[in-house]
Amino acid sequence: GAVVSQHPSRVICKSGTSVKIECRSLDFQATTMFWYRQFPKQSLMLMATSNEGSKATYEQGVEKDKFLINHASLTLSTLTVTSAHPEDSSFYICSAHFPPSGRERGWETQYFGPGTRLLVL
Amino acid sequence: GENVEQHPSTLSVQEGDSAVIKCTYSDSASNYFPWYKQELGKRPQLIIDIRSNVGEKKDQRIAVTLNKTAKHFSLHITETQPEDSAVYFCAATLANQAGTALIFGKGTTLSVSS
User: What is the DSSP secondary structure assignment for residue A93, as one 8-state letter?
Assistant: First the structure.
């Protein structure tokens, strides 16, 4: 079953509005979550690393003031796309390391949320 | 930082044939290499992974090989079936370090025709 959930699964909004996407780890605590963006027929591009209780680390070229990330608890990270424009339309996916203890597989195993498809009109 | 190259971008095979996808990475410190399968509109699913202390790993029809010296790793699918059709992504990362993200290749669209 899924260990990482995302909400909403799909959102359509008008240009200029803000959209919040939630990523939750189910039944485990994730000190670190990752946000990726995937355009049609392209690969997953890392946007930022979300760290619980501290500021997110953004990849080069990703505007931190446009893509606000908040990791206020050990089970929830949010990505807010501010003043969305049509070029922001994409598939946004989060991921988290599981199991967090690292004993079974190590830190490296990442499981992805189901993704959020954003369409900005 | 890490850079991952993946080839081919598209691959078409007949059912029952084998499929091979190859990736190279740039950061010699990377020590974990997973492969993900993604169906249209869905999340990537981990299908197999390999750590740098192992040269080969097999799981039924799927195998992965790793050449640390050359910094490349490959996915091998034998006896392909139509349901293997999907986009496959390789990735690399430095494991055992919290906060280290996966860096993905550009993906390979595999089409298996019956």
Answer: E
Contacts of A42 in chain B (CB under 8 A): 106-107
pLDDT digits over A90-107, tens only? 999 999 876 555 544 455
Tokens standing for residue A69:
């990330």
Which is nearest to B24 in space by CA: B66, B87, B71, B69? B71
Which of A55, A37, A39, A56 has the alpha carbon at shortest distance from A47? A37
Q: What is the mean pLDDT of each run of 10 residues along chain B (114 residues)?
A: 94 98 94 93 92 91 96 97 97 74 94 96
CA dist., res. B74 & res. B63, Å (int)? 8
d(CA A94, CA B70): 31
Chain B residues touching A55 at Cβ < 8 A: none
Contact B95 A107 (CB under 8 A): yes
Partner residue opposite B97 with nearest CB, options A44, A107, A114: A107
- State whether residue B102 is helix, strand or coil: coil
| Contact indicator for B105, B93 with CB cutoff of 8 Å | no
